[in-house]
Amino acid sequence: MVVVMAPEATQDEIDAIVGLVRSAGGDAFVSRGVTRTIVGLVGDVDAFEALNLRSRAGVLDAVRISVPYKLISREHHAARSVISVGGVPIGPDTLTVIAGPCAVESPEQTLAAARMAQAAGASLLRGGAFKPRTSPYAYQGLGEAGLRVLADVRAETGLPVVTEVIDAAGVDLVASYADMLQVGTRNMHNFALLQAVGAAGRPVLLKRGFGATVEEWLMAAEYIAQRGNLDIVLCERGIRTFETATRNTLDISAVPLAQRLSHLPVIVDPSHSGGRRELVLPLTRAALAVGADGVMIDVHPEPKRALCDGDQALVDGDIEDIATAIGVLAPLMGRVLTRPAARDGVGAAVAP
Amino acid sequence: MVVVMAPEATQDEIDAIVGLVRSAGGDAFVSRGVTRTIVGLVGDVDAFEALNLRSRAGVLDAVRISVPYKLISREHHAARSVISVGGVPIGPDTLTVIAGPCAVESPEQTLAAARMAQAAGASLLRGGAFKPRTSPYAYQGLGEAGLRVLADVRAETGLPVVTEVIDAAGVDLVASYADMLQVGTRNMHNFALLQAVGAAGRPVLLKRGFGATVEEWLMAAEYIAQRGNLDIVLCERGIRTFETATRNTLDISAVPLAQRLSHLPVIVDPSHSGGRRELVLPLTRAALAVGADGVMIDVHPEPKRALCDGDQALVDGDIEDIATAIGVLAPLMGRVLTRPAARDGVGAAVAP
Amino acid sequence: MVVVMAPEATQDEIDAIVGLVRSAGGDAFVSRGVTRTIVGLVGDVDAFEALNLRSRAGVLDAVRISVPYKLISREHHAARSVISVGGVPIGPDTLTVIAGPCAVESPEQTLAAARMAQAAGASLLRGGAFKPRTSPYAYQGLGEAGLRVLADVRAETGLPVVTEVIDAAGVDLVASYADMLQVGTRNMHNFALLQAVGAAGRPVLLKRGFGATVEEWLMAAEYIAQRGNLDIVLCERGIRTFETATRNTLDISAVPLAQRLSHLPVIVDPSHSGGRRELVLPLTRAALAVGADGVMIDVHPEPKRALCDGDQALVDGDIEDIATAIGVLAPLMGRVLTRPAARDGVGAAVAP
Amino acid sequence: MVVVMAPEATQDEIDAIVGLVRSAGGDAFVSRGVTRTIVGLVGDVDAFEALNLRSRAGVLDAVRISVPYKLISREHHAARSVISVGGVPIGPDTLTVIAGPCAVESPEQTLAAARMAQAAGASLLRGGAFKPRTSPYAYQGLGEAGLRVLADVRAETGLPVVTEVIDAAGVDLVASYADMLQVGTRNMHNFALLQAVGAAGRPVLLKRGFGATVEEWLMAAEYIAQRGNLDIVLCERGIRTFETATRNTLDISAVPLAQRLSHLPVIVDPSHSGGRRELVLPLTRAALAVGADGVMIDVHPEPKRALCDGDQALVDGDIEDIATAIGVLAPLMGRVLTRPAARDGVGAAVAP
Question: DAHP synthetase I/KDSA domain spans which residues (chains A, B, C, D) (predicted)?
Answer without folding.
Answer: 87-324
